[in-house]
Amino acid sequence: FIHENRLQDRVVFLEDYDMHVAEQLVQGVDVWINMPRLPYEACGTSGMKVLVNGGLNVSTLDGWWAEAFTPEVGWKIGNNTTSCNDPEQDRRDAMDLYNILENEIIPAFYTRDQQNISPDWTNIMRNSMSILTPQYSANRSVIEYTQKYYLPAQQEYEKRRADSNSGQTLFKAKRTLESAWSEIAFGKCDVIQSESKIEFTAILIHEISICDLICVEIFADGAGSQSNDRFTMKLQSNNGKEHLYFISISDQRPYSDYTIRVLPQYGVHVPLEDSRILWQR
Fold this sequence. Notes:
Distance between the termini: 49 Å
Order of helices and strands: HEHEHEHHHHEEEEEEEE
CATH architecture of the largest domain: 3-Layer(aba) Sandwich
């Protein structure tokens, strides 16, 4: 391809790319360009590797970059939409990349002050390193898995081992929930927003026998450096199979960020031991 299209002076093809080659690349690169076709990028860990070395990312909104991108830490190619025509999508992405290079990346890199420093570039670089590096690192991942999953799982194991009836109790609860889960349905759900708080009310239709086996909560996905938010709704009253749940929270996020969901809650880990989650549609 390189020889046929006379690109020898513009393109270098690296054979047998591996972690050792990547180690050399991420140490010296200023801009890491990644252009997978949406939605086929599995993750994009190469872009994470450049963070600690001060490299900046420009990529289509796929893989990790769909989650990590904000204008303060790098650049995005396209608008997270896909075309049924691959050549057309490639053309759009290419034009967007050329536009970003010409009007944003190159000016930011080559506009220097009297000390031959690029203020805009170094600001983005510092933002990328301070915001993304702690979040997208193996250290953070291992610590989080240990604190959120491994240690609680060990504690739960010791608790169950000490109770000879725990297995039978969990089995009965699971069977009870299994028999009633398919009948759980959302009724009327309302949101009232005031100056400082948001009130959610939801009517759920389910058997009264599973009130103690489920958790009804509102959930908001994390965006950028923002973490997930989840709050448990309280059962206020019931009328036969209709159960009224309520919660009041501060208005730190728009109410549209939240979705009501139902999860199992009978001493098991979700979704490891029981993967059922019912979302409001």
